[in-house]
Amino acid sequence: MEQNNETSGGDFILLGFSDQPQLEAILFVVILISYLLTLLGNTAIILVSCLDSKLHTSMYFFLTNLSFLDLCLATSIVPQLLWNLQGPAKTITSTGCAIQLYVSLSLGSTECVLLTIMAFDRYVAVCRPLNYTSVMHPSFCKSLAGIAWLCGVGNTLIQGTITLRLPRCGHHRVHNFLCKVPAMINLACIDIHTNEVQLFVATLVLLLLPVALILVSYGFIVQAVSKIKSFQTWRRALGTCGSHLLVVSLFFGTSSAVYIQPKRFYGHSQREFLTLFYTVVTPTLNPLIYTLRNKDVKGALRRMLRIEQNS
C-alpha cells in the first residue's frame, strides 16, 4: 500500500476493504452478481412501467424514477469498487473522485426526497381515494419529481463543492470504498468543525426530516386503515404501502446508521459494510421487493414476456 501511496501522485487511495484481503475475492463475486441483478431488475421495472398502459399512474411514475436513481447510483459506485477489489491498485483519479462524489451524493439526496414524495402518494391513495386522480395528476407528479431532483442537485452543489475545496495537505488515503463527504472531510488539514455542522444540518434536512414526514404519512394511513371493515379492502390498502415501507426501512435505516451515529460507535469496517448496503445492496433489493409484492408489476411483466414470445 505504501508503494501505491508514493506512485499515485494526485490520485486518491480508496482503502475500502483492504484491511480484510481475505474478504475481497468474496465481495467481488457478491457485488458483481448484485450489480447484474440491479441492472436487470431496475431496467425491467422502467420498461414495464413505460410500456404497459395499465401502469401509467403516479405510483409507477415515481417507481420508475426510483429505479432510474438506483440504477445510476449503483453504476456510479460499483464499477470502480469492482476494479479496486480485483487487484492491488486501490486508486481513483482526483477527477474521478470528484465525479463520483457529485453523482452519488446527488442521486442519494434525490432518493431521500423521492421516497418522501412516494409516502405522500400512498397517503393520498389510502386516505383520499376519491380525490386521488385529481390530486396526483401527471403535471403535479412531474413537478414533485422535479423538486426531488432539484433538492438532490442543490444539496450536492453546496456540500460537494465545499468539501472538495478543503485543503488536504497531501492526504489522499480515503477510509472508504468510495469518495463521499464524511470520508473526504476527514482528509482536511484544517479545523473541520464548520464542515461537520454543515453535514449535520444536511443530515437533519435530508434524512431525519424525510423520515419524520414518512412516519406522519403512515400514521394517517394506519389510522385510516384501522377504520376499514372490509378485509379485502384493508389487505389491498396495506399491499399498496407494504413495498414502499420496506424500501424506506432498508434505505433510511442503514444510511441513518452511517450519518447519524457518532464515529466512535462504528469502526471503519462496520461503516463501510453499512454504506455498501444502502448504496449497492438496496438498489438490488428494491426491484425484487416491488415485483414480488406487487401484482400489477408481475402482471405487466407476464404480458410483456407473452408479447415478446408471440412476436
Topology summary:
Blueprint: H1 2-7, E1 12-14, H2 21-51, H3 58-85, E2 91-92, H4 94-127, H5 132-135, H6 138-164, E3 173-174, H7 181-185, H8 193-225, H9 231-260, H10 268-292, H11 295-310
Parallel strand pairs: 1-3
Antiparallel strand pairs: 1-2
Helix pairs in contact: 2-3, 2-10, 2-11, 3-4, 3-10, 4-6, 4-8, 4-9, 6-8, 8-9, 9-10
Describe this entry's structure for a reader.
- It is a single chain.
- By secondary structure, the chain is mainly alpha-helical.
- Helix content is 77%, strand content 2%.
- It has a 3-stranded mixed beta sheet with strand order 2-1-3.
- Helix 9 (231-260) packs antiparallel against helix 10 (268-292).
- The longest helix has 34 residues, at 94-127.
- It is globular.
- It starts with a helix and ends with a helix.
- Mean pLDDT is 85; it is low at 1-9.
In short, what is this structure?
The protein is an all-alpha fold. The protein is built from eleven helices and three strands; from the N terminus they run H-E-H-H-E-H-H-H-E-H-H-H-H-H. It has helices at 2-7, 21-51, 58-85, 94-127, 132-135, 138-164, 181-185, 193-225, 231-260, 268-292, 295-310; strands spanning 12-14, 91-92, 173-174.
Write down the overall geometry: globular
Largest sheet: 3 strands, mixed
Taking Cα atoms only, what radius of gyration do you get, to the nearest Å?
21 Å
Class inferred from helices and paired strands: mainly alpha
Mean pLDDT: 85
Topology order in helix (H) and strand (E) letters: HEHHEHHHEHHHHH
Number of strands: 3
State the distance separating the first and last CA atoms: 55 Å
Helix content: over 70%
Portion in strands: under 5%
Strand order of the largest sheet: 2-1-3
Q: Low-confidence parts, pLDDT < 50 over ≥5 residues?
A: 1-9
H/I helix tally:
11
